[in-house]
Amino acid sequence: MTDLLEVNGVTKRFGGLTAVKNASFTLKKGEFTGILGPNGAGKTTLFNILTGFMQPTTGTIHFNGELVRELAPYKVVNRGMARTFQLTRPFVGMNLLENVLVACMSPRASEDKDKEARASYLLAQVGLGGRDKEPVETLPYGDLRRLEIARALATRPDLLLLDEPFAGLGSSEIEQLAQLIRRLHREENLTILLIEHKLREFMALVSRVIAMNFGEIIAVGPPEEIVKNEKVIEAYIGKTEEAHASA
Ligand SMILES: Nc1ncnc2c1ncn2[C@@H]1O[C@H](COP(=O)(O)OP(=O)(O)OP(=O)(O)O)[C@@H](O)[C@H]1O
Fold first, then answer.
1. 95 CA to middle of ligand 1, Å?
2. Are residues 166 and 60 in the same domain?
């Protein structure tokens, strides 16, 4: 497998706070990787940097061999990196089909000549088939998450970044969405980077974990190793009383 994404020494400072500290990692084509870490660990900041919503203070990002640092978010999308957000942002006043159609105008989707057919197909693919004309305003949370994924897929990405797709969903919705994500990874030749706090679902989906704490990458490995990693356990539950006593 070749490297699709190469992150090298990325740091992001907000005044005196270092949200991401010297992060380096690679993603290989076809990998399903997750970023794990407690609140405030720097996961979303890292996503924002990768996708052009923020510039790193230092460090470089290569995607498909090209330097993507300094590129505006739409240019990053045009190079094949699409994302979803913790808070969904549909185009209000438009129906489901129109919401996906906008993304079908992406340069990478130029081969998709019949845009309406493509948008309709994507809605069906994410489980929203037959609902093209529904207004987006009435959509429940779980369906909004599906719509976001359809819009991201419309840009024909090589890498899909999912920021907490299960937040706010009930257990049956989570299971359905997890199945969808798993199927997309398998059938659409996608490389996926996932942030998710729902640990059981997270660990079942990913094959590699990048664990962060206080902006730093503290461990990288398969889920079965990460759950046993001392630094990761400490980051989640804090030092044991014994360790505190001897410190
Ligand atoms: N625009 C900003 N300005 C100042 N500080 C920020 C900004 N964005 C994030 N931070 C800070 O950077 C740190 C990392 O935040 P970030 O949102 O990346 O963490 P996270 O791991 O995604 O957390 P969560 O799991 O709660 O979403 C936090 O201390 C946060 O308050």
1. 33
2. yes
